[in-house]
Write a structure and sequence with these properties.
Blueprint: H1 2-23, H2 52-62, H3 66-73, H4 77-84, H5 92-103, H6 105-108
Helix pairs in contact: 3-4
Amino acid sequence: MSKERTELGKLIEAGLEEAIAYERGETTGARVTRRRVTARSAKVAPPPEYEATDIQRIRGRMDLSQPVFADALGVSAPTVRAWEQGKRVPDPPARRLLQIAENSPAVFMKNVRPMKTGGARIHAEGPATGPNSGKQGASPRAKRPK
């Protein structure tokens, strides 16, 4: 039985190594089976509810001003302000984006770029550093394409 486990372990290890090499583009010709995901075969969990303090925490963790956070979410700064004051609640698409910001800040921050003014550097996982870090105030808003 121990010999069977050893052989099985070797097969599993070889299969995993082949899968990793394929994903890296190091091998070709591997047989890959992809299945279409449909409403009949999957259930998508609804986005979580967010309290005002949750939204403040998410934004604070990325050290973004309300206007920059709003631009990243595709909403207005007054909307983010209303959420953070508990006057309004985010709709489901905004809650999904908040979930991404909370769980994968690096993905969320990919479109947030510092301006070339020598300001703070942007870090997806922690606070900003630089000459303007720690200062409160309105950040310049990125121009949106018309």
